[in-house]
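thread: overnight batch results

M.L. [08:02]
morning all. the overnight job finished for the chain we discussed friday. pasting input first so we're all looking at the same thing
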Amino acid sequence: MDRLQTIEAFVAVADAGSFAAAAQQLRVAKSVVTSRVQQLEEYVGAPLLHRTTRSVKLTELGEAYVKDCAELLGRSSALLDGMRRAQHSPEGKLRIHALPGFVLGHLANELQIFQQMNPGINLDLFVSDNVIDPVKEGFDCTLQIFSPASEELVARKMFPVRRVFCASPEYLKQHGTPDNPRNLHEHRLGLYSGYQTRDRWDFYRGQEAISIYLKPPLLTNSVHVLAEYGCAGAGVVCIPTLVASRYLVSGELVPLLTDWELSSFWLSAIYPLTSRRGLKLQLFVNHLMDRFAGTPVWDQVLIERGWLSQEPARLI
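M.L. [08:03]
and the structure it wrote out:
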């Protein structure tokens, strides 16, 4: 019996809440996970999981020791990575969850550079707008704009995600240009559906603040759809500058209300306090921090043109 493998299976089932999901994460058959957990339970002499046809829950003993087991896996992974690094280079897989707004147009080149530097590390990248708990979903790290879902997670802030209202020149020629946030009620809008403020939009200009509620005819979880909607002349859209910048510079979109600012969000790398990928995750996050920390290039060009202030008005 490989005790580390049995502990890994137990922790994976506890995190995922099912044997099937744990098997998918570990890339083994469900029967293998079941067998390994049974071996661990036989070794300790007590059940660690309550199994029903609908759910899997920790027993009192399992609850008492699952965190220690996760920490043990983390320490063993970091130890082995350190030993290997001293001799060669780290190997293994990293499962990463990331926002499409950041991934498309910005991340692929950095992934290539990272893998050239670390050829033994395989990346399993899942792209979606969902806010997740990486522990429960089986990821080593998530790149997202909202706060960690639990106290067991840490967040390394990389850069602020700033937002701008904009529209195509054709739309503005036909419908006019709003010069105050309240004028947005007079326009056809396309807005992102995932912000935690929902329909409330807060604008800042010096010490002045305005809160308005907007009900757009287009609400979507895709900032790239919003960019295309705006470029098509369909309406006024609000999109992150990491997506909008190239359209603004090319003239396909025109920035609006540039003397007002919206609140901004930190894009952070969020991962467990006791990561089971140790050195590999550290190398990946450090690479992104080295590349993106501070004022990103897509914001710098807008700052130089006077369309953004040097610093965000308010960071959430």
